Fold this sequence. Notes:
Layout (H helix, E strand, L loop, with lengths): L3 H16 L1 H32 L4 H29 L13 H15 L3 H9 L11 E2 L2 H14 L7 E5 L3 E7 L22 E7 L1 E5 L2 E2 L1 H5 L5 H23 L14 E3 L8 E5 L12 H10 L2 H4 L3 E4 L1 H7 L11 E2 L9 E2 L2 E5 L11 E6 L1 H4 E14 L7 E13 L5 E5 L3
Parallel strand pairs: 2-14, 7-8, 8-16, 9-12
Antiparallel strand pairs: 1-14, 3-4, 5-15, 6-15, 9-13, 10-11, 11-12, 13-16, 14-15
Helix pairs in contact: 1-3, 2-3, 4-5, 6-8
Amino acid sequence: MTDTTTADSLETKVAIAADDLAEATAVHDDMLRTHHAFTEANDERLAEQEARGQADVLLEEKLQRISEALDTHERRLNDLARRAARLPLATAAHTGETATDAHKAAFEQYVRKGDAARLLRLEEKALSAGSAPDGGYLAHDELERNVERLLADASPIRAVAGHRRISAGVYRKPFATTRAATGWVGETAARPETTTPTLAELSFPAMELYAMPAATQTLLDDAAVDIGQWLAEEVITAFAEQETDAFVNGDGITRPQGFLSVPVVDEATWSWGNLGSIKTGVDGAFPATSPSDVLIDLVYALKSGYRQNAVWMMNRRVQAEVRKFKDANGDYIWQPAASPSARPTLMGFPVVEVEQMPDIAAGAHAIAFGDFRRGYLVVDRTGVRVLRDPFTAKPYVLFYTTKRVGGGVQDFAAIKLLSFSV
């Protein structure tokens, strides 16, 4: 049986991507040419450094400009990829016969005109918890799905992390601290009783995240404006920035727990509940000779079962540094994306650029490497809530929009960090 919904979605994505294909191809070609210029300039810098002990200042500045151009091309490709992934919402609100259509029509009346009567009746009928007028009303399923999809496109960590959707306030995940005893026995030998594993529990509470876009009444009165799409796109940037920072640095108290807030220990003494780290051997810097060797050490600190889906995570300034590194054969270990829709690679593994990762500094964990799909879990509680406020900022109408999201490390063996320390 053919899944027509999936087929239609794929066809739509291909059609949308085709609109930007020429530009994406041109940007990718420019990126490849810029990378070639970068390698030539860096080779010249290295040769001059070897011959004279230091590189010319003008050459260093040229290399920096080319590196910034590479960053610009990469950001543009990411923007085009996100735009290609977006599916348009239906533009006409109507009173269809399904519950979803009725909720959508009632929600649009509430957003445009503040008429909450129909929406209140629907939510009372559905016994929706926590959606009283003073707390706002739940958005319809289509808008909620689009917020989540746009977040997945905009948030670099969501794109590579594991994901669960829950209806409770906390997601609890059991794990075994000790394994059940096993052994070999003969065909007719007695089977000794084995010990049972000891279980513990990881919990991922969903924290409240909010955004408050504003609209003029003229925009709300315009029937041609898709209010659901407008609201989703208005809140998505604020949500994505706040989420990404929390997934990296969150304290686990008022925000999701970021993976850099987990205790970090030297890889040689790693144990469950901590993240293992490899040290560069230099405070606040890569080693002066063979700097790429510490990256190789970091790769092989990760068990082989995790490496097949592993990615690098760093900000653009750290990425600009590793672009200059070569391996023992003289080949650059950073390579631009092989196609407009791919990511750049470092030593063959994709690079995920996350601006909230720290810069290189003494003791900083500025580079992460691992299988984030298994290592980090993002939890979304069902329901996006909207409270319409036409009074606080007249003549603008504010929309206090909230969602519940949590996160944390779920497999402490799946992520390794590079520590810029002795």
